[in-house]
Amino acid sequence: MDIFDVAVIGAGPAGSMAAKYAAKAGACTILLEEHAAAGWPVQCAGLLGEQAMAESELSQGSHILRGMMGASVFSPGGQRMDFKAKSCKAWVVDRRLFDQALLGRAVQEGANLRLRAAVRQIRREKGTSVLTLGGGQEIYAKIVISAEGVSALLARRAGIAPPQMILSGAQVQVPFAVEDAEKVEVHLGAAPGLFAWVIPLDERTARIGLCARDQGCEHLRAFLKTDVIKKRLQGSPVALNVGGLPLGPPAATAVEGLLAVGDAAGQVKPTSGGGIYPGLVAAKIAGGVTAAAAMEGDFSAKRLMEYDRLWRAALGRELEIGMRANRMLGKMSDAELDELVGYLAGKPRLIKAIEEHGDIDRPSRLMGRMLRHLDWDAIRLARLLGYALG
Ligand SMILES: Cc1cc2nc3c(=O)[nH]c(=O)nc-3n(C[C@H](O)[C@H](O)[C@H](O)COP(=O)(O)OP(=O)(O)OC[C@H]3O[C@@H](n4cnc5c(N)ncnc54)[C@H](O)[C@@H]3O)c2cc1C
Q1: What is the distance between the alpha carbons of residues 145 and 9, in angstroms, rounded to a whole number?
Q2: Which one of 15, 202, 288, 366 counts the least CB within 10 Å of its CB?
């Protein structure tokens, strides 16, 4: 009977990166993906910040569709704020090709891959995890990494609690009169829970989507009928993506013999809904810790909680601040959002700070800098930012 050191469930970005790092650290690793290929179905807008791109270790390749240099932020009442940096601050990727490239790197590093391998059940037997696949076959592993994505059924059954909330996401790709193909549009107030976005793919096509507390498809349908969007639609949607977005990680992301990473662990930025950056950072830690623990022969919850401590040291404060900022935006009325966007739009020094230091992966740094640029009549905004930064 072959016993793998590490079995990773799910070949999304987090799973492939965890498998790569476990294999790189010398663990005999198997990566199990239920679909026939990685990256399908797509449930993502595919926007990656500079740090996410760096963490992916894939800063070149056909998965990169175009660079983004700035954004236009719209308030519900029609205020807008524009900023554009001198260089690319984010990239739009083809998630199918991106996920496949990450998977390729895991295999190059020595991870064994099984496609069409849906894990149905995990049981612990004499200190080993027995994973039962759809066809009944069993795989044995010392430690399991659940990178199953938002549903994370197996992680939940193993005792990892669900995230604090799951937003409902929906997106279409549509022929569209794009204003500036190097700028993302953010529409505040268009979706309770987060915001709506327009991400240009070229001058005539965009991904338009949103994440809301619930009923993402209904909110998207309504958003497509708003004046600011409707008049610019130039054809019917060609693709619809829907999916859940977990916010707020559970109190513990490791139990005996298993840990969770990526969406399965609620590692998503609450300010933007981006899960790829935190998922990749945590996955590298997960790969390293599981490889070491497997070689030591210690699969206890206490040993695996090292992963929990390390990823929280790297990301915990950022996710907490993001959660407060998300709640703050969620509480603001349309009039307050108009006031906020109008205020920011009239402050060139703030816009310059955003252009120079904007970072969608680590927004707290910019929030801290913005506090320094406020004048006395901005007490209200200072209070809001102060609340978000704790
Ligand atoms: C509408 C929308 C837009 C988004 N836009 C962005 C964005 O622009 N930028 C960004 O950074 N993030 C974005 N996200 C979030 C991002 O898509 C996720 O955070 C990211 O995909 C999480 O990666 P993951 O590897 O944890 O999980 P996933 O990518 O969900 O991968 C999980 C994998 O596990 C497999 N799997 C599940 N169960 C089993 C099983 N039992 N056995 C075998 N395989 C299994 C699945 O088939 C899948 O391949 C968006 C999300 C939504 C919903």
Answers
A1: 6
A2: 202
